[in-house]
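Dear Dr. H.,

I hope your travels went smoothly. While you were away I took the liberty of generating a structure for the chain from your last submission, since the lab meeting agenda had it listed for discussion. I wanted you to have the full record in hand beforehand rather than looking at slides cold. The sequence, exactly as received, is reproduced here:
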Amino acid sequence: MHPDAAAWFARRTSAVADWPVPRLVAAKGTTRVSVVLPALDEEPTVGEIVAGVRGLAARTGLVDEVLVIDSGSVDRTAAVAAAAGATVYHRDEILPELGSRPGKGEVLWKALAVASGDILVYVDSDLTDFGEHYVCGLLGPLLHDESVLMVKAFYDRPLLDVAAAGGGRVTELMARPLLNALRPELAGVVQPLAGEYAARRSLLESLPFAAGYGVETGLLLDTVTGYGLDVVAQVDLGQRTHGHQDTAALGRMASTILHTVAARILPDRPLWTELTQFRRVAGVTTPTDTEVAWPDRPPMVTVPGYRRYETTSLRVNR
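The corresponding predicted structure, in token form, is as follows:
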């Protein structure tokens, strides 16, 4: 491991057990915390996650609001989330004058325009084993160390990996090798693509947001480039179980992440923005092209109207 990465790993890695709830409650003070769930057709899982976060909020006061940002679901995601106690927004209703783009990065970016928290905790809405420790672990370093601006989660992925702390397939086969080669100081980040992370609003609103599945990698790279490696911490949350995508979908995800990294590390290198994949049906092989790269959304502080939004006027009740 690169020496800078090894030193950072030793200094900035903790476990969820290091952040017991009473310690967090004592440190929270007047800091507002928003938990944000991006969601696209997650009816089976989103309600349980929202209920879990709401339970933590009611019992401890650690969470001030729970937001679900619907990315265009065609199932009952919005209704289930609202019934469980979340404030639900549809991406199209947030900053509508800017339109909407596909993908996860869009809804995470738009969440900044409606969340009220000083700290935002992002949690994927497809988790099948959500526990309150996800939120508590991510809050720990931020509430106890003002120099920490972002906290990344890592966990065991039991359905995919033999080794604990292994990442998913895209992490192991593309993201980690790519970052190790081009930004070796980031080699100590166990799961750079983790969908569970938390950050200060002051950081998030100063950064561009990459489109789609490139958002986590883009935020990590831009944070380290702009503020230094030591503003990032990571927390071991134990285990994570969620739904899995097929190989072709993972290829599209990997391609989007590759474009995100290249745009930041090799900005003068033009890249083709389509990925060609192949399907074989009844003995016939057919190429299929998919657009995998879109422009970043700009830092939210540069967006006219950002602070004019009254969040209550945009709530979705279904």
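Two observations you may find useful: Residues 3-268 form a domain with the Spore Coat Polysaccharide Biosynthesis Protein SpsA; Chain A fold (CATH 3.90.550.10). The mean pLDDT is 91.

With kind regards,
E. W.
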